[in-house]
Design brief:
The protein is an alpha+beta fold. It has 7 helices and 6 strands. A 3-stranded antiparallel β-sheet has the order 1-3-2. A 3-stranded antiparallel β-sheet has the order 4-6-5. Helix 1 packs across helix 3 and helix 4 packs across helix 7. The chain starts with 14 loop residues before the first helix and ends with a helix.
Length: 185
């Protein structure tokens, strides 16, 4: 699978605001409490199940009188959500769901740049799927001041990404999250 070891539930987009909501609400939430973040019931359920499988959340089914699923952060989820909260607090004027940190593949892209200092668009596109989505992400990251996009010529003209100091902080937090989750599995 493309992306393989680089991708986890944090890489899937809307997971970040879901974890932040669980941390900030500090109470069990039900699936519908996330409906403003993820309107599709199946996508919402699948995202929560994936987070549960990765040990980020605990899901408890309760019958009172109808079946509801209560979602809480696990100890790993609390650690991850606190790191995400650190990233989110770096730019408090924008809601987490509107930041590129909540976009699909934001964290593996930042971690890849962190590991190489400078990386070509094509190198990331060879590892992660959906080049059009990635291209939108690159430009959004540049708008938010996380990366700089440059162009060089080496037999052929190519575009590359480098981290800004602000982007490096976020990339290091995402790397720490990735390491925490990898060590749990």
């Amino acid at each position: 699978m493309m992306g393989g070891d680089l991708v986890n539930s944090i890489s899937q987009g809307i997971t970040v605001p879901m974890l932040l909501r669980l941390l900030r609400e500090d109470r069990p939430l039900i699936f519908n409490d996330f409906s403003d973040l993820v309107s599709n019931n199946n996508v919402r359920r699948d995202r929560i199940i994936q987070m549960e499988e990765e040990g980020l959340v605990n899901v408890e089914s309760i019958y009172s009188p109808r079946k509801i699923h209560r979602v809480t952060l696990s100890p790993l989820g609390i650690s991850v959500a606190k790191l995400l909260n650190t990233i989110d607090s770096l730019n408090p004027d924008v809601d987490a769901k509107d930041k590129c940190m909540s976009m699909r593949y934001a964290d593996p892209v930042l971690r890849l740049i962190l590991s190489r200092t400078k990386i070509k668009f094509s190198e990331i596109n060879n590892v992660l799927p959906y080049p059009d989505t990635l291209k939108k992400l690159y430009f959004r990251m540049e708008e938010e001041g996380l990366v700089k996009i440059g162009t060089e010529v080496d037999e052929r003209r190519y575009k590359f990404l480098t981290l800004t100091p602000f982007g490096k902080i976020q990339a290091m937090c995402f790397q720490e999250i990735y390491d925490l989750m990898k060590n749990q599995s």
